[in-house]
């Protein structure tokens, strides 16, 4: 009867797409495994969750490779649509939703210089370096556009590893710089990559670089406006319609859908979805989050974090599995010596390209920072920032697949070599550099234990540390010490940089006009 | 510059799948609209969210039909994979997770007789009726297997409308019967449908019916065991690994992934995913839910409800849009009179087919119930149960597409007629019967206001009402009244039906062995 029955409902399995079911089952099971192993290894000094996921992915890849008798090592082909439409939005939205807004906006100019100027510098060095050094190691199959694309591919950083190690409570400024640069870097790399794909190599002129930079600024402005507008619309809808009557499930559904919609709208309007959803997250946590019931607050905070966590783990798992993409390795015909030359050159250029902007730009940031603030980026912090951006991740792989394959398949041996090299560089940087991140951070920033606040929306007004003094005027309106603060605030406004004066005016504007309309705590309770 | 830039990044849009982006954007926007409109109309007497979603879907369909100049009315083709792999699992899991387990298991035999025997009776009446009456209204294009399939298609109920109206706090037993039947009915219909697709019509014998029923029992048992095993495994993992150290994001990710994995594993092993994920939900809320942090509890409870809510709204929206599937209407060549004959016959058979089992089986259930319990299903309740199952929904449409189309497309005019008829019957039953549900329930069950407990896991020990007396022995272990209860319990065990005796033994077993291993509140605090 059992066998009869199996044939009886076999048709149903076909009908729900057997291949999809198998893939999803394996991925869900392996993700669960990653979560458990990651939790068990959490306290371990050398390992972090990215590395765990990559290694588990690698092992699962080997098992599948054997099970399928050498035919394929991964269940899903690396799918740019899956990555850009389903995995990236929750990660970036959560980044915006959980970011300490205070720090982020105070360091806005520094973050932008790292994230935008830095990418342009790193891109130039890597492109020129590859163009010059690849033929020297015996690899000559690429054209000028390919070299420019390589420059952006290897400028897209992946700071997840470092952020797992840095403590937001202990070094808020450093955390904010590394984190903020990571988000802006993602957006800049993707936009620059697309700009390069459109450049007509035959009629290259000196104005092209200026034009690309101008386009980026336009894109940044419009994407930000769209994200802020979507966030404000959500906040307004929640505040107006739900007055006095909460429906937790609807509130959660509405916030999630509007966040996702902002990303999709940006893509539809050909803006940068990454920037849009990031600013949408910031606005939602600043206004909309305060208009919903207590249960909705807890749920949204954790569900966005959990989704982001799953998406990240999924991506690293995938990168691990992808390392064994046997077709690419077969198609690549480059000699072993040349291949190792490519790896060496690329990793060397990544190290140089990043150093070339982190240290000068930090010095510049320190120079423009007024001495009274004591907000200098110390040399130790500069090293951590430099190190934090050495890892390469899923964005690099997605861009490489886009440039050098057609729907994930390539017959060109040179292109296959670039793909395998990208995978190797990503694996090497994540495993080796990632591996050393925790010891490095522990060495440079000795641990000062402070109780964890599990509430990301709680105030981050820990006692000011040596490197990271909180801005005094951020507590404007705190009734207990308003006299002293008022005085400090006036002083600040006289002596400090324009961005800070703008900040004070913004706070007044926010309290007087924005919060009464869009919701949010009065008296500066938030971050 | 703007235009240059637009062409510049046009490629990126192609690369992320422009069509997908457009579809998702529209769906997300329309879902948001549904949520807002649904919330505004919540207090309205005649409307519920299913109807709102169908009507909004219909309007959006008309707009798209005009915008695309009559080419197509829906953005996505009705996709069985989307439905069975992504939309159904969260709905059913949430059903299991939020169900009042006490009531569900007490009414287990009644629910099973409605959900299994009932489907078989309804299926027989509708199949025989269609076979006899369709030729009489001039529709002759179907074979015997098609008629049998129609029997299952129109036996799959959709009780969402009714559950939105019934109050779980006021009439727990009725709610539990309607709800429980809905879940078991879904599973039975899908399994029966697949059994019929495999029957060799040419060699039909009397043993076939017995065999199909036997297969169902085997499937029910194995699916339940798989669901329970997955739930217990999750509870055990959470309890063992997270002792003394909580990580909310990981807990949430693990629970969601394991729930989804149970569904996928069942599909992979060719069992009933619906039943598996339902029992997985029950076990998780009974054990695993008690092993996680307070924040994880709030988050999981709301996120599963919100997901289920979004999936339901999405389905109804889709059904509304699908009504304008212009290709099907064009392919269908049946005369108008015949078409209305088909609608009439089908709706008549649905009414008769359901009455034919609800009233007799209720009487039977009352007969076997001991008089001391006063747990009779009154005639008013029987009418509500009968009415609750008259609506037809997405499962009917999914099964109809599976039987009468090839990947959503058919060239056969008769098959196109069946598809359009199914859509019309689903729309009619949901709109008309659904519309009348609230007034009917209000008329039959006068409202007795009682404060809502927003906690679905709180105890449901409201004061016993006339029809729904709670079982006294469910409070075993309550220290304040244990003497009296012990006596009552002994009496119960002597006089009551075996299923109740089993229940008492189960409680003892649960408290002594299961909870210490898998977690959960002691002293019967849960539902």
TrEMBL record, chains A, B:
Keyword Metal-binding included in the entry's annotation: no
InterPro entries noted in UniProt: Cation/H_exchanger_CPA1, Cation/H_exchanger_TM, NaH_exchanger
Main localization category: membrane
Subcellular location: Membrane
One GO CC term, this protein: plasma membrane
Any GO molecular function: potassium:proton antiporter activity
Domain Cation/H+ exchanger transmembrane: 31-442
Reaction(s) catalysed by this chain's protein: Na(+)(in) + H(+)(out) = Na(+)(out) + H(+)(in); K(+)(in) + H(+)(out) = K(+)(out) + H(+)(in)
Keywords annotated in UniProt: Antiport, Ion transport, Membrane, Potassium, Potassium transport, Sodium, Sodium transport, Transmembrane, Transmembrane helix, Transport
Membrane topology summary: Multi-pass membrane protein
GO biological process: regulation of intracellular pH; sodium ion import across plasma membrane
Bilayer-crossing regions: 20-41, 53-70, 82-99, 111-135, 216-238, 272-290, 302-320, 340-363, 384-404, 416-441
Keyword Mitochondrion attributed: no
Family to which this protein belongs: Belongs to the monovalent cation:proton antiporter 1 (CPA1) transporter (TC 2.A.36) family.
Matches recorded under PANTHER family: SODIUM/HYDROGEN EXCHANGER, SODIUM_HYDROGEN EXCHANGER 4
Record protein name field: Sodium/hydrogen exchanger
Organism: Rhynchospora pubera
């Amino acid at each position: 009867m059992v066998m009869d029955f199996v044939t009886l409902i076999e048709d149903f399995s076909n009908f729900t797409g057997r291949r999809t079911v198998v893939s999803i089952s394996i991925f869900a099971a392996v993700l669960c495994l990653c979560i458990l192993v990651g939790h068990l290894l959490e306290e371990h000094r050398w390992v972090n969750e990215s590395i765990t996921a990559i290694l588990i992915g690698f092992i699962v890849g080997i098992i599948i490779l054997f099970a399928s008798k050498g035919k394929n090592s991964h269940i899903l082909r690396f799918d740019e649509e899956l990555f850009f439409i389903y995995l990236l939005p929750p990660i970036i939205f959560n980044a915006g939703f959980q970011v300490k807004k205070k720090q982020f906006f105070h360091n806005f100019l520094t973050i932008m210089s790292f994230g935008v100027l830095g990418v342009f510098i790193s891109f130039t060095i890597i492109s020129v370096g590859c163009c010059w050094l690849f033929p020297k190691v015996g690899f000559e199959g690429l054209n000028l556009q390919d070299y420019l694309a390589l420059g952006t591919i290897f400028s897209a950083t992946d700071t997840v590893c470092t952020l797992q190690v840095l403590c937001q409570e202990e070094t808020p400024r450093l955390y904010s710089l590394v984190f903020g640069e990571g988000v802006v870097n993602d957006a800049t790399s993707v936009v620059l990559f697309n700009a390069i794909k459109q450049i007509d190599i035959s009629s290259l002129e000196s104005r092209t670089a200026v034009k690309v930079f101008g386009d980026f600024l336009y894109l940044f402005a419009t994407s930000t406006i769209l994200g802020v507008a979507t966030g404000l619309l959500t906040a307004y809808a929640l505040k107006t319609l739900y007055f006095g009557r909460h429906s937790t499930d609807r509130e959660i559904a509405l916030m999630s859908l509007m966040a996702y919609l902002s990303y999709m709208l940006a893509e539809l309007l050909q803006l940068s979805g990454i920037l849009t959803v990031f600013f949408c997250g910031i606005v939602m946590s600043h206004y909309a989050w305060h208009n919903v019931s207590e249960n909705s607050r807890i749920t949204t905070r954790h569900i966005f974090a959990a989704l982001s966590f799953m998406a990240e783990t999924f991506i690293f798992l995938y990168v691990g599995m992808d390392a064994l993409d046997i077709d690419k390795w077969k198609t690549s015909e480059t000699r072993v010596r040349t291949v190792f030359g490519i790896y060496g050159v690329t990793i060397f250029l990544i190290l140089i390209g990043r150093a070339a902007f982190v240290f000068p730009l930090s010095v510049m940031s320190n120079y423009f920072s007024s001495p009274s603030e004591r907000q200098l980026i110390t040399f130790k912090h500069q090293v951590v920032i430099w190190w934090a951006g050495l890892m390469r991740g899923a964005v690099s792989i997605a861009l490489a697949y886009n440039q050098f394959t057609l729907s994930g398949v390539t017959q060109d041996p040179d292109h296959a070599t670039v793909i395998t090299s990208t995978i190797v560089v990503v694996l090497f940087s994540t495993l080796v550099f990632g591996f050393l991140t925790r010891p490095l951070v522990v060495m440079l920033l000795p641990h000062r234990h402070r109780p964890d606040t599990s509430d990301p929306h709680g105030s981050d007004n820990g006692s000011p540390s040596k490197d990271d003094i909180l801005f005094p005027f951020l507590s404007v309106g705190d009734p207990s010490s308003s006299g002293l603060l008022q005085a400090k605030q006036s002083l600040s406004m006289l002596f400090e940089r324009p961005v800070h004066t703008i900040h004070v005016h913004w706070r007044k504007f926010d309290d007087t006009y924005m919060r009464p309309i869009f919701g949010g705590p009065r008296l500066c309770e938030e971050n």
